[in-house]
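== Item description ==
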Amino acid sequence: MKRFLVEEGVGQDLRFWSLGQALSALYPPGSGEKRWVDGVLARKKDLGF
């Protein structure tokens, strides 16, 4: 994931993070998908974004 976001530059596109926020809001609490999306969003700052 780090390669995709940092090295490929996808993390520079604000649309990626907006999509993550939208998906997080749509997935039901406790679902595996929501945990995954929320995990990526939580690492945003650690990745330098």
The radius of gyration is 11 Å.
